[in-house]
Amino acid sequence: MKKKLGVYICHCGGNISDYIDVEKVRAAIENEEGVFLAKTTMFACSDATQKEMVQDIETNDLDGLVVASCSPKLHLITFRAVTERAQLNKYNYVHANIREQGSWAHSDDKEGATEKAVQLVKAAVAKVRLSKSLEPIKIPSKKAVVIIGAGIAGMRAAIELAHMGCPVTLIERDHFTGGRVAQWDILFTSDQTGREIVSRLYNEINNSKNITLLTGAEVISNKGSIGNFRLQVKIKPRYIKDHFDDDKLKKVIAVCPVEVPDEYNFNVTNRKAIYQNPGQYPKYPVIDIKNCTRCGECEKVCDNIDFSLKEEVIEVEAGSILVATGFDPYIPQDGEFGYNEIDNVITLPQFKRLIDLCHNDLLFNGKAIKSIAYIYCVGSRQSEGENKYCSRYCCTSAIHTSIQVKKNFKNVKNFHFTRGIRTYGKQELLYYESQKDGDIYLQSYEENPLMVSTENGKICVKINDILTGNREISVEPDLVVLVTGIVPRSDTSISQIFKLPGGRDRFFNEIHPKLRPVETVIDGITIAGTCQGPKNVTESLNSGLSAATKSFSLVNKGELELEPIIAEIDKNKCTWCGECEKACPFDAIRMVKQGDKDVAAINNSVCKGCGMCLPVCPVNAINLISYSDKEIESMIDSLAGKG
Amino acid sequence: MNRRSASILVFSTEKISDPAIDMAGLLKLHYPPTVYTISVPCSSGIKPRWILHAYNKGFDGVFIAADGSDCTFGESCTEKTGNIVSKTHEIMKEKKLDPARLRMAAICSVCSESFVKQIKSFNEYLLKTIKS
Question: What is the predicted ipTM?
């Protein structure tokens, strides 16, 4: 039993100590059996405190360590590393979670939260008193990464992994890569078009031997876990065989009688059932089989059409999964600032496509557009509902678009109805340029929102402008552009397959926004791009690089260290009844002779440490390392206040 | 029983239900502070003697936040965890303990709200039925 334990209780800034009296916790546990020193610290994870812990362990020859702080998902590895630096076996460290399961869960009851923290730390002390030095088990990890989503974050991550020599399977549900960025024209700050960026990334992917790109492909199940994910992927056919030239494509498109709203242009135009979007890759048309009427007209003019092609399901294996599934643009509700009820009210993504499609004159519904009202924060920063967050990209995007409009078309006036501009960093230059160029900025608070109505057949936008002392100002624009934000994907299949949790904003949740920004609570799965939360293009690319590096670190060595948690048989107690052998899903238990007695034996290399054999043993001859009866029951004693 | 909240021991699992319980905290979904968690690798490895030990030491209720069908150790987890609960219920009956003081629900890694709802309902049941 350990006799010289160090215990550290973290304030976590105020995340813990605002609700839990950490000094009271320290005082309550400092005289527990085996506790040699007990300290509170502002940030246990800081370099300074980690160094102090190492020094304390070495100076005092501590034989066990407890840190009471945030979830072990965040810092278990950090503090195990501390013990290793101090030459103390890392399995002599026990973590007490007094933030997620303490101060945050009970922020409504400070006294109760403090009392709970005392018991949790006492239970951790009870466990570490009985801990043993162990060595981790090593298992092979497949050196391959699956990336789900071939938008820019996923594409950039794939290229980075390929450069590091890692095989990548890049899976895209759509038939084309590039995601949303493929739909954008000129971007800020580089003046490149979105299509140019996508084209460059696609060419790199196409030229890489390490990347397998699957388009029209959807993950439908997963059977594995970190080191050995086994995914089933359904691949939809394009119903096209072999490449064909642009002239042939034009002919086929011309004869197709079907017209449906074109998602690429956010439904401001229609497309045919056979289509290929400009600037999207691979440059290979597809038949939208849901809307195709199978009239046969295309087959008459083109022998590359093949309706006999079938869906197929393939299995893909990987050591790590990188999820980069992107976002959905916010679609305003009917009547929200006149959307779908007043003519000439459109969203920013629709407007951006419209500008790209118009050449000499800016026209909408056949009418020349000379004045535009931009209404900001539609679907973002909402006081009611789920979208309380800022979508980050939209202020910059709207201002950039308004500048492009003036550059591309003559005599256009821009009126910006904002709730405070958030063009952070270098993007502030755009705001300055727009103001210098004569754009008018008006602002209102959320409790006094502006109104969009029609008066005498004209659109009217009215605002009580706080920048001019709440004066009521009306504008009669030709077009209203709703600067819509971004929302999480409505398709939750990936979340369900991998059980990836979302945060309060419903985007996928990282373990910690600063310390572990691309890791999820599901081991081996990283996240990148806007599936994690609002980001602009640069931020998405950066997160793609970050997630690629993290995923690579999990598969690079070809093996992973697992907890040495395996079952142990007390051969003196065992009378071999065979129940444990039946319960083990991994065939890790077999009967062996011990003298003239039959007993159970564990195959250590096969045992996964699930513990399924424990409760079926009629003589209680099996324990799991680190979860023995003694350890669990001593924790229960402490939690019950009877320790 | 004249208490605001019952004492509940939760057996959670490191990979599946622990993240959900952590996220309940992150989302500030409050539940009684007399709910304590012990993490184990898999809910099908919980021994009935641990559950009975908790009652002996004064816990009002034990809640198993089970892996359910998401268990990384295999599909048999749900059935095996169910068997542990049934077996423990039988022992509890023999010992004149109300079997309803042991509850189990599958709590997946995104089931924070479900966890809090289950715990609140269990707490209410225990406060109503257990006399101090």
Answer: 0.97
